[in-house]
């Protein structure tokens, strides 16, 4: 990426961040406070009211990590889907590379993910989770969720220019996805022979892997559930979505300025 | 001018837009349109436009609203993609076609400078180096930490312009920037344009409605009409062609009521000579009116009056009392030599219809053409007109 494009990206992301908390007294603090309070609520609900994860060690951290990754996915793809239209003023007037607006929205979401992960780590330490080198494996896992979100964002943002129904459909899809992914319930509550079907979903694979490297080994992962060539399915989906999304975006971006 | 390097080559550009009402914006509409086999309604905005801009040119694009100027500019800037044809740009291009692109009202003036600068292709470091200059040029020092939404529109334009002129690109693209700002700001614009006009390596493409700017700065110009180039070359000719086209529209728009409706005489005055004249040519108009038997033709005469620029009536023919009226349609031509009129002046001719009275100075006015429906002429000027009326310069005497 050229220095010019990097400068544009930087300004777009910082504008996003500055404008987001305009007029609020606590300002940037909300980026930390929001996940913190959300976690507090979830912790109370799933520890005392519906103890789904009694069998899972450090269930609260386990839960929070899943929520944080899912929230990133939701935020990145929803913001990403609307990004081209939202930046219509720029796209109609300046010939900056169109993919920058999608990347900018993903980066904004990534900043929030970073802040949320700080909160998760604090929770984890308080909860007695021992820090270890395996936490570093979160990096490729986060890279995977970024690639997945980007691919979907490219596809949806280009579609959204012509079909404004897309965001509604995607919102419903995300609602369904939230329950199809083992986020609030441990996979142990699902019969073992069904696990392999859950792991077609890249989000299920990467959330379970993140939990494995950071919180507890006492749970099912893609690697423990699928023992055939189909183990590559979630990764093929991630790469495939990026390829399709980038291709669709590229072929349609020449006409964004007039179609918005 | 020969053998110059071509900076922008535009070849047979066509651009069509799908009209918005037939766009498929929801799945339902898409399905409905597929089922009904609706044909797309397209609008041809540009229809086979070709030209070259050489390195160092100050190239003007003029045309009335809707003629395709802005579309052409967006195509050159790479915002739009042509339906057919090609555009080749040698060297870097400002991605800018408007002032203040990307300005965010919720950000401070300072943040907006950096944001806008990034879109212009500057890094944060480069912007930091230029920041003080930009602020002082815009004369906005005390306001830079305030949000842009609290700026007046004039302040916003000043800020945007101050950033935009930092743009360093082989080809600068400017759209209508001259049309904004107060007089002091316009002067700054003019200084800037003079500066880049004198820079023989700087290529500029300017879209404007200001014929003065075209005459003063451009060395080449094109005029667009309905997506086609209808005048090409010398900016003086193109500017005059544009002035003429604006007259045409006035006379076609008002063709039917280019007469005073309150009278029964259907009085009208129409230009016969060219509406854009060289100093010394004759202005010729045709006055037409109709008299029926009831009104009678006896003692009825017509007159014309001339207005130049904003001056009151400078010439009136009421005393001529040309008694030539007859029952039916009357057509009379009138000519006036323009040798005495200042170059660049606008001349408007109105007509009046009178009935002569037996008493002196007591003629009755039957009908008149108001200023709105006057026949309008423009005397071309090689220089920027200064708005005066007479051409003769008079003589000075020094000492006592």
Task: Record the SSE blueprint.
The complex is a heterodimer of chains A (260) and B (400).
Chain A: H1 3-20, H2 29-49, H3 59-86, H4 88-93, H5 99-126, H6 138-162, H7 166-180, H8 195-198, H9 202-214, H10 222-225, H11 233-253, H12 256-259
Chain B: E1 6-18, H1 27-36, E2 42-54, E3 58-63, H2 69-77, E4 84-89, H3 109-119, H4 124-138, H5 153-164, E5 171-175, H6 183-198, E6 203-207, H7 211-217, E7 220-225, E8 228-233, H8 235-253, E9 268-271, E10 276-277, E11 282-291, E12 300-308, E13 315-316, E14 328-337, E15 346-355, E16 364-368, E17 375-379
Parallel strand pairs in B: 3-6, 3-7, 5-6, 10-17
Antiparallel strand pairs in B: 1-2, 1-4, 7-8, 9-11, 11-14, 12-13, 12-15, 15-16, 15-17
Helix pairs in contact in B: 3-4, 3-5, 4-5, 7-8
Provide the β-strand percentage band of chain B: 25-35%
Mean pLDDT of chain A: 89
Poorly predicted ranges of chain A: none
Task: Report Rg of chain A.
Answer: 19 Å
Please bin the fraction of helical residues of chain B.
Answer: 10-25%
CATH superfamily of the largest domain in chain B: P-loop containing nucleotide triphosphate hydrolases
Please report which band the strand proportion of chain A falls in: under 5%, 5-15%, 15-25%, 25-35%, 35-45% or over 45%: under 5%
The SSE order of chain B reads EHEEHEHHHEHEHEEHEEEEEEEEE
Q: What would you call the shape of chain B?
A: globular
Distance separating the two termini of chain B: 52 Å
Number of helical runs of chain B?
Answer: 8
Topology order of chain A in helix (H) and strand (E) letters: HHHHHHHHHHHH
Q: What's the end-to-end separation of chain A, in Å?
A: 26 Å
Helix/strand/pairing category of chain B: alpha+beta
| Strands of chain A, total number | 0
